[in-house]
Amino acid sequence: MRLPALLLAAALAHLALAGPVLLAAGSSAPLAGAEVEVEKLDGTRLRLRVGPDGTIVVSEVPLGVLKLRVLSWKGVPVNYECTVTPSNASVRVPNIYRLVVRVVGSRGQGLPNAAVRVLYGGAEVERGSTDESGTYKTLLPAASFTVVAEYGGREARQPIELRGPSTEVTLQLDVFAVIGGTPISPGEFMLLILVAALIPLALFVAAYEYSQWRRKRALRVIAPPERPGG
Fold it and tell me: pLDDT tens digits, residue range 190-203?
């Protein structure tokens, strides 16, 4: 009666589960949405997408061993390979780096709620907005990108190489100040100052001309009519 039990134990060992497998970018951020391929020892291959919690689940894995390939993340190639075992089911994917984007105005002031887009090969791979300090932070695979910042109809873009642990880029827009929710350039601001200075002068001139007109009219009314032949 002990033989079938031993055979069952051997079968379970042969088809041990390797999941869930946790994939993370760098030290902790889950690699949610990454496209991966797993290969079992029997040659079976599966294409999977990493879940929101950064895990994939693969069943019926011979000896619990998988060959894992991280193909891409956020639409950017990663091409990282490793072997997953029951004792090593947490994968830290290298070459995932931090990108910090600062969007500033013409005075160097941070612009909050500016739209930030990251392009790879001309295609948009990420979109977000700056915080109150005008900063946007993200993680991306090592590659060449173009960063685009937009605010109030104004746009700036810059190509970058994301190769180190952290890359910072500053994009400056022609925004001197925001008045009534409308961004204005330095030239527009000076024009506003000029208009603001001319308005009191125009009012003074108009008031003076009006007072002169009233005075002349009053004189005409008070002056006696001329007598005939006088």
Answer: 555 555 665 665 56
